[in-house]
Design a protein that fits this description.
The chain is of the alpha/beta class. Helix content is 37%, strand content 14%. α4 packs antiparallel against α5 and α7 packs across α8. The structure holds D-gluconic acid and magnesium ion.
């Protein structure tokens, strides 16, 4: 029997698939393997949009041909939720139906290039929703929590930080004390600047509710802010002492040179980290900041693309990487990013505000607990409605996130209940990001 006869016989034995007997040998292996048994396949990919806490959340559900086996992933880009929904339902779903959900890396790589143009926030979030769901499926199939598939626990629980804010020194201090009483050791502090729309604190600009949302102007001026922040830290260190770890988010809103001066001004107050001193468009300033200040620096929530962060990491220009995991495409790239950071003593501090779904928070914490160079996890409490919609939210206790040992991400989604919290498609607050302007009317980074 010659090779051609053997091949024909072999193919016939696998259900008679017609196959070219010429061409690369690699084509043979998957076809033969695929018919060896009834393979696990993706049968559906769908996006669930829900807002149980009033913030638009985007979750992807990947279903398979194994009864009851499905996975969940976070794809939350709250400002463009409908665009992510389209990217998943119209483009990724037809590309994925019928594929083997255990081929997580291959599905990530092929989905990533499937749009040709890539590395942007919408498509990365869409891929993240699928990616996290495939990891969830793998965990469920193996009966193990994801952190075990990532190498196992490096710690029992994940240390977290919360957001304290206020419109006065005293009210910020009061909110810091509240979190300390709840057992937190790390607190981010933000204070409203009089007459301004300050990030992270209640806006104190004039009420504009009688203006159409896209015509309102939220005023922001850097100078009053950079003068107020050192006073806030001086007051807090006198009020709450040196033990508590204090953090602050500049939120990319001031000229780079003012951020460098602010980092220097804050050195005496020993911050845990100063976040987003620059915008992603100004990463060239990090080398100047590093040369002038020992204030620890965190950056990353606005990054989508390895070209934005690999330079900062290899040159040791930041101390904490703060990406929004779904923004870079999910757990598959985030695991690689955490490993890269380990070799440069950069610690993880994944983005974890209200516009990361409980599924995304679960993914954060599974990765945190298995990462040796974990730094801190931004945390939030989950409303009772969120906990009903997402059974299995990570538990927040004594300042830590705790995980169950449930298989996969250990969190579920009640679709029927999720439907009771439909997203609002264009609420006024959507316009806030584009309505921030300097006093002279110039548009500024939000
Ligand atoms: C943070 C972030 C958020 C973002 C928000 C954007 O540090 O948690 O800065 O507050 O502003 O996620 O939608
Ligand atoms: Mg931030």
């Amino acid at each position: 029997m010659d090779r051609r006869q053997w091949l024909s016989g072999a193919v016939a034995a696998t259900g008679g698939l017609s196959i070219a007997t010429s061409g690369p040998r690699s084509l043979l292996v998957p076809l033969l393997a695929a018919t060896a048994q009834d393979p696990l396949q993706i049968t559906n990919v769908k996006t669930i949009l829900t807002a149980p806490a009033g913030i638009r959340l985007v979750v992807v559900k990947v279903e398979t041909n194994e009864p009851g086996l499905y996975g969940l992933g976070c794809a939350t880009f709250t400002q463009r939720a409908r665009a992510v929904e389209t990217a998943v339902d119209r483009y990724l779903k037809p590309f994925l139906i019928g594929k083997d959900p255990t081929r997580i890396e291959d599905i990530w790589q092929s989905s990533f290039v499937s749009s040709y143009w890539r590395n942007g926030p919408v498509l990365n979030n869409a891929i993240s929703g699928v990616d996290m769901a495939l990891w969830d499926i793998l965990g469920k199939r193996t009966g193990r929590p994801l952190y075990e598939l990532f190498g196992g626990k490096c710690r029992e629980a994940v240390d977290t930080y919360r957001h304290a804010s206020g419109s006065s020194l005293e009210s910020v201090a009061e909110n810091v004390r509240r979190y300390l009483d709840e057992g937190f050791r790390h607190v981010r502090v933000q204070m409203a600047v009089e007459g301004m729309s300050t990030y992270g604190a209640r806006s104190t600009t004039a009420d504009q509710s009688d203006f159409p949302a896209n015509r309102r102007t939220n005023v922001w001026e850097p100078r009053p802010y950079v003068q107020a922040v050192p006073k806030l830290f001086d007051y807090l260190r006198h009020e709450v002492g040196d033990a508590v770890e204090l953090l602050h988010d500049v939120h990319e809103r001031i000229p780079p040179i003012l951020a460098i001066q602010l980092a220097k001004d804050l050195e005496p107050y020993r911050l845990f980290f100063l976040e987003d001193p620059f915008s992603p468009e100004d990463v060239g300033y990090f080398q100047h900041l590093r040369a002038q200040s020992s204030t620890p620096i965190a950056m990353g929530e606005l990054f989508n693309n390895p070209n934005e962060f690999t330079g900062l990491i290899k040159d040791r220009l930041i101390d904490f990487i703060r990406v929004h995991i779904s923004q870079i495409g999910g757990l598959t790239p985030a695991r690689k990013l955490a490993a890269l950071c380990e070799y440069f003593a950069v610690r993880t501090a994944w983005h974890g505000p209200g516009d990361v779904s409980p599924v995304g928070h679960a993914a954060n914490v599974h990765l945190d607990i298995a990462t040796p160079n974990f730094g801190i996890q931004e945390a939030r409490s989950f409303s009772s409605a969120e906990q009903d919609v997402f059974p299995g939210c990570p538990e927040l206790r004594d300042g830590y996130y705790w995980l169950s040992d449930q298989p996969g991400l250990g969190i579920d989604l009640d679709e029927r209940l999720a439907a009771r919290f439909p997203i609002e498609d264009d609420p006024p607050f959507d316009m806030n990001w584009g309505n921030l302007r300097r006093a002279d009317g110039t548009s500024t980074k939000p």
